[in-house]
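Explain my protein.
***
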Amino acid sequence: MRADYVIVGAGSAGCVLANRLSEDPGTKAILIEAGGRDWNPYIHVPAGFMKMLDHPALTWGYYAEPDPGTAGRAILYPRGRVLGGSSSINGLIYIRGQPEDFDHWAQLGNRGWGWDEVLPFFKKAENWEGGETELRGAGGPLFTSKMDRSPLCAAVIEAGKEIGLEYREDVNNLPAGAGDSIGWCQQTRGGRRRASTARTYLRPALKRPNLQLVVKAQVNRIVFDGRRAVAVEYERGGAVERADADREVILSAGAVNSPHILQLSGVGAPEHLNRTGIPVHHALPGVGQNMQDHYIARISYPVSGAVTVNERSRGLALAAEVMRYLVTGKGMLTYSASLAAASVKVLEESATPDVQCSIAPGSFKDGQIGELDEFPGITAGAWQMRPLSRGYVEAKSNNPREAPAINPRYLSEQTDRRAIVGGLRFVRRLFAAPALAKYCGAEILPGARIQSDDELLDYARQKGSTVYHATCTCKMGGDQMAVVDDQLRVHGLERLRVIDASVMPTVTSTNTNAPTIMIAEKGAEMIRRAARAAQPEITVKAA
């Protein structure tokens, strides 16, 4: 097979790229995905995300390495392995982050990545149900919707106001310098169904004859001719095949798999590659380093006098919710991982809010998303927006089928430990406010006996988990640990880009799916611009 562009990974970024690059009928693209089609019904029902976090066919089945930050636990680390990637299995939350996140990227030397410069690409992606405004887009492929609002979470909003938080009706209309606030989360949902990038970007593009999709094909390596990336080698049905790229190879396999594929291709830190038996093709020490993720610990309470997900998820009540969903497209089955969120500052040295608190009208056994408690309950989780802890993704061997070592090294920095404790204390303050306290009984997790900073930190280590925001493993920049430049081209190599969440130089302050889609929109424009610039040169040579 041969095309102008070979894109590796049909996830949040890859589906965007496949759509945008194939808009030009004179351009051919091949999109390669390790997983299969997005036919599983759990993908399309929003609340189905809880059934997919450890799904054997829809995820990679990854676990993070045991680490002191997780009290020696090897925690589940879900990554989508299906059309749409993690946008097909995530909690559907659509929050862009603080404008300061992107201005910081630009301040690090990444030209063109400040807030004012990335905003047009957020807007280009969006089909916001509230209509187009100065800050929101309405003509893009990605359905973005308001949350169906639970009365119990409305009480959470009121409680936030009672303790001095500013209410924001649109959490994506966030001015620079905004202080502590609370508001309703937004979703990647169109009608009653999930709006993954497979549904919104890829499906329309597959009607074009110049886009070829290859599924159930695991990429083994990138093929180089000297410094030039010329092809992708992959395995499908037991046979090794090759897709040649006349212009560029684009890695969009995500913050775990993009660095892993680079390492398998001989691109990375020489000492690491030598240890794993991979011949060094190009020394690039930052590949797989600088890993960042958000780490969440949850507090839960029993509820009386209000409806929660727990008691509505069984028996006749569940049957009623299914009917409500089918008839009206509303109700519990449209819920995301959280319905409301508070952004607050808990560290004195922070210039802007530094902890996100996500609230859901349900509670989970042992504080882990999955099995609901058998009694009515409510949960709030706290996570630090800008962690200082840095981890890694590293190939364990030269075998593409062996999962890489994944370790975000949660809570390895003192600032991060202070932030998680401050976040848990804030949650308790929120739930003690009159509007919410009247519905809540005695704290279930971690329980009133856990009071000191050391006890709260130990609880976070014992019961915390990922927020599924793996980023920064192929970071953008100009320093020696950067992997790509501000055009997302891999340093020292030709015709090779990385375009996905791995290129973030620092993790965004909130959920990462919206920024990842923005990166892909902006990356696609960079590729098209480069192709236009090269066209006169090609024409002259041909003449």
